[in-house]
Every structure is written in structure tokens, then in C-alpha cells.
């Protein structure tokens, strides 16, 4: 019996996943929690076979949680289930140590397929994103990778939030850091992406969030 831990800060989403996956043969819900801290505590004392984790958590970025869990247990399987566009995060999620990415809007059967694929030791992403990742890998070998890959996980998170229309004060509140720190991150993002000013930063961020592409 494979034990699943669900990590999502939305109670209704957790309840839905518990109901859906708890009915599947060979799967058992080991727990469902709303914070990264709770997930880490469970994985320290009684680790599950698979963690299903959202990227947006109140106390820690999902990418950071993946890295923390993998540091605690390199064999732990992690599947990201997120509302964020797959093409924006899938490659970085896999690099952090997760084994798959499913968007919350996907059909239930796709999520179940993803869970079983990862439990078998496979990797699950959509065919479209699989092709995109291979193309990006090929471009990196040729020296033509997207400038967005130069951003740290925190900078990428802020870049995405800028593209979604959030201002610095709003972002600071959501990430529990100061507006001054957000300003420093924005400056680093502009420098790494070769952007002239705040207007160009917003324009590029909006375009990236909409298309998943740079340019």
C-alpha cells in the first residue's frame, strides 16, 4: 500500500485530493497538511511514499520545500500539483528534485496517472512540456538558454508575481519579507535579464507569464 502526503494550503483542494486518491486501489492517504513545516515534520518522523505538494505555501516556496525534503530523504518521491502554468515551472521543479508536475485544472485521471507513474519511479509531465524541456536542454548545450534560467528560485517567484500584476507591497506581504528586500530582488532581476527600467520589467514579466516564453 503506497502512502500519500498531500501538502496544500487550500482545505477544499486537500479534501478533494483526499477523496479522489483515497478511493484508488493501492493508495492510502498518509496525511494532508497546509504548510511546509508540517510536511517536513511528518517526513522526518514517518515519511510517506509520495508527497503531492503545491508550489504556493504560506511559510515556504514550494521549490524550497522540494529541496528541503530531498535533502532529508534523497529517495523521497515528490509530485507537484499546482495552479501555475506548467511550462513556467516544470523544468525547475524537476531540477529541484521532484518527479513530476500536474496542473490543478487537469482531469482527475491525469492526476492518478501522474501519481502511479511517479510511484513506479518514472517522471510525469505533459507531452508539450516534455518537448519544451528537451528543446531548452538542447539550447543550453548550444549556449542559447533563456535569460529567465539565470534567476534564483526566489527571483523567479517575484518575476512571476510581477507578471500577474502584483505590486511590490503586495508581493512583500505575500512572501512575508520587506518592501526594501523586494526592491533589491527587482534590481537583481533587471540586471540578470538585461532590462532597462521597471516598465520593461513589467512588460517582460507579463509576457512570460502569458506565454512561458522569453521574447
- CATH structural fold name of the largest domain: Rossmann fold
Looking at this structure, what is the CATH superfamily of the largest domain?
A: Response regulator
User: What is the alpha-carbon Rg in Å?
Assistant: 18 Å
Mean pLDDT across every amino acid position: 92
**Biggest sheet character:** 5 strands, parallel
Strand arrangement within the widest β-sheet reads 2-1-3-4-5
N- and C-termini, Cα separation: 47 Å
Describe the structure.
- With about 220 residues, the chain is of the alpha/beta class.
- The chain is built from ten helices and five strands.
- It has helices at about 10-20, 35-45, 60-70, 85-95, 110-120, 125-140, 155-165, 170-175, 180-195, 200-210; strands spanning about 1-5, 25-35, 50-55, 75-80, 100-105.
- A five-stranded parallel beta sheet has the order 2-1-3-4-5, with helices on both faces.
- Helix 4 (about 85-95) links the parallel strand 4 (about 75-80) and strand 5 (about 100-105).
- The mean pLDDT is about 90.
Amino acid at each position: 500500500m503506497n502512502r500519500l502526503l498531500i501538502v496544500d494550503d487550500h482545505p477544499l483542494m486537500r479534501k478533494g485530493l483526499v477523496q479522489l486518491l483515497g478511493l484508488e486501489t493501492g493508495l492510502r492517504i498518509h496525511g494532508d497538511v497546509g504548510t511546509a513545516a508540517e510536511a517536513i515534520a511528518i517526513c522526518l518522523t514517518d515519511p510517506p511514499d509520495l508527497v503531492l505538494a503545491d508550489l504556493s505555501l504560506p511559510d515556504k516556496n514550494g521549490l524550497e520545500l522540494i529541496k528541503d525534503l530531498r535533502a532529508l530523504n534523497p529517495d523521497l518521491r515528490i509530485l507537484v500539483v499546482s495552479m501555475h502554468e506548467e511550462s513556467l515551472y516544470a523544468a525547475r521543479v524537476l531540477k529541484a528534485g521532484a518527479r513530476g508536475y500536474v496542473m490543478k485544472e487537469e482531469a482527475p485521471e491525469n492526476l492518478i496517472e501522474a501519481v502511479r507513474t511517479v510511484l513506479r519511479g518514472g517522471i510525469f509531465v505533459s507531452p508539450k512540456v516534455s518537448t519544451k524541456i528537451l528543446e531548452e536542454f538542447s539550447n543550453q548545450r548550444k549556449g542559447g538558454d533563456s535569460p529567465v534560467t539565470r534567476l534564483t528560485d526566489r527571483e523567479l517567484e517575484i518575476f512571476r508575481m510581477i507578471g500577474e500584476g502584483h505590486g511590490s507591497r503586495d508581493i512583500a506581504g505575500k512572501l512575508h519579507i520587506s518592501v526594501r528586500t523586494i526592491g533589491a530582488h527587482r534590481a537583481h532581476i533587471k540586471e540578470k535579464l538585461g532590462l532597462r527600467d521597471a516598465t520593461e520589467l513589467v512588460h517582460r514579466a507579463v509576457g512570460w507569464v502569458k506565454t512561458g516564453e522569453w521574447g
